[in-house]
Amino acid sequence: RGQPEDGFALENFDGTGSWRTTDAGSPIDSSGILPDGTPFKGPVGLQEVLLKKGGEFMVTTTEKLLTYALGRGLEYYDGPAVRGIIREAAANDYRWSSLILSIVKSTPFQMRRSEQP
User: Fold this and answer.
1) How many domains does the structure of the chain reveal?
2) Quick one: 44 and 75 in the same domain?
3) Are 25 and 49 in contact (CB under 8 A)?
4) How confident is the model over 17-43, as pLDDT tens digits?
5) Is residue 100 located within the same domain as residue 74?
6) Range of the domain at 22
7) Residue 78 in 3-state DSSP?
8) Nearest C-alpha neighbor of 28 from the set 10, 46, 44, 40
9) Strand, coil or helix: what is 116?
10) Over the stretch 55-76, which tens digit does the pLDDT of each residue have?
């Protein structure tokens, strides 16, 4: 493969979420390599790798979600908010609902400005 791929881990799921082992008659290769070079095979393999890198995964996920929510890139002064969001998510077993709610309650999200027409 020319570049690291992590999307292949979920390739066994079709567009509606049903499990499949072939695509157009060919077996599905659900293995991949993360950008840091870590190989995995299938959804369970990806899960195992991500669990080993739990902190790194949560920081990246939180930063990406907050970037999307703010409509701008993160700055150094967003660091305390990111850490607070992660602490809140950790206190709630890292549930997605907790992560999203913590982002919405964060200072950067509450203080963002919308563009004037």
Assistant:
1) 2
2) no
3) no
4) 999 999 999 999 999 888 888 899 998
5) yes
6) 7-51
7) helix
8) 10
9) coil
10) 888 999 999 999 999 999 999 9
